[in-house]
Amino acid sequence: MQINKAVYYYNCIHKDMRENMDNELKQSREKINQVDRQMAELFEQRMNLTEKIAAYKQKHGLQIYDQEREEEMIRDNSNWIQDEILKGYYADFLRQTMRISRSYQNRLLNGMKIGYSGIEGAYAHIAARKLFPTAHKESYNGFKATYDAVVEGECDIAILPLENSSAGEVGQVTDLLFSGPLFINATYELIITHDLIGLPGSKVEDIKTVISHPQALDQCTKFIKDHNLKQIAADNTAMAAQYVAKQNDPTISAIASKDSAELYGLETLASGINTEKTNTTRFAILSASENRSISNKHDVHFALMFTVAHEAGSLARALNIIGAHGYNLRTLRSRPMPELMWQYYFYAEADGNIYTPDGQDMLEALQVCCNQVRMIGSFVEQKAVE
After folding, report:
1. Among 361, 363, 358, 359, CA closest to 374
2. Within its chain, how far is the Cα of 199 from the centroid?
3. E-assigned strands of 213-337?
């Protein structure tokens, strides 16, 4: 009897303990649901703000993924967590949140139109595909047609080559920047590897003629001379590949990318034939709106164009103003002005943020000593998302 009573009380005590534990679990779950409800509301707020960010990026031709910005945000925001053990989990939470944000931005920008010069497989198309993988790419015949597509509202962004590490500036694009209204809001360096491509079964020793864009031909002069090849200029490298495929002549080849060879059913006959093995083309991402949201990061640059009076010391005065305000010039080029014989305009790039009091003072000072001054963009070098 005593044993049964003890068992009874033991069961009662454990029943109470279980009920208390069940109540604590229930209350904890209810509190988690309340927190989750608040987080759901905050999530909607965050994604609504993401829509505004996506619209800004579309307007200014900015890449969705900014690794440096995200890592900086994770470092800073993790400091809000007091518990050192939880900081790592919170950092992972932020990474997942930003991944979702990027995915949503990609969906919003699926209708974004990117203009590029050439056809599918051209290096500008490769750059567009790497920078804006989900956006619609629109092909145009020539740099001016691509530029004008953004001016006229047909495209959101134009991707055009600024310069090549071995062949130098692309003068036609520089002239468009001088005469037109678009802004550089980012630049992107694409490593260029030129291949000799031809019909399946062809051999290098069979080739008599090579076709490509003039700059690509210039970048492969040693290979062309060594093999005594006749040169034909094309509007771009991908069109050259397309031409070779249509001609169906085993003695004709193109200098183009591996992508072009695959697209047009050709084979790579010789890889990496560019004379300079560090061959890189720098592309400008152009839009109709100036990006003023650049922060004071070390990798911020700006570009401007100006003209000076045709008199001794006028250029030196302009350059002294830029230097006196603490900006380091990294590029300075002159281009002839088509409408004025022996008159030139200057294209300059400098390191630093121009949207500071010093930067604005510098622009005002340049307006005094220059005939024309035009800001054409503040930007950072963008990296492609593989």
Report:
1. 363
2. 34
3. 230-233, 252-256, 267-270, 280-287, 301-307, 328-336
Token pair belonging to 318: 């302009």
Identified catalytic residue from 283, 302, 346, 379: 283
User: Buried b vs exposed e over 169-193: b needs ≥16 C-beta within 10 Å?
Assistant: bbeebbbbbbebebbbbbbbbbebe
User: Which residue(s) pair with 267 in the sheet?
Assistant: 198
Largest CA distance in the chain: 120
283 is catalytic: yes
Tokens of 47: 């994604």
Question: What's the pTM?
Answer: 0.72
Residue pLDDT, tens place only, 296-350: 556 789 999 999 988 888 999 999 999 999 999 999 999 988 777 778 899 999 9
Q: DSSP letters of 193-207?
A: --EEEESTT--GGG-
Q: How far apart are CA 181 and CA 157, in angstroms?
A: 13
- Angstrom distance (rounded) from CA 161 to CA 147: 11
Which one from 50, 237, 281, 307 is the annotated catalytic residue?
281
Close Cβ partners of 159 (under 8 Å, ≥ 6 residues apart): 114, 115, 116, 124, 127, 128, 131, 146, 188, 283, 284, 285, 286
| pLDDT tens track for 133-185 | 888 899 998 899 999 999 988 888 999 999 988 778 999 999 999 999 999 99
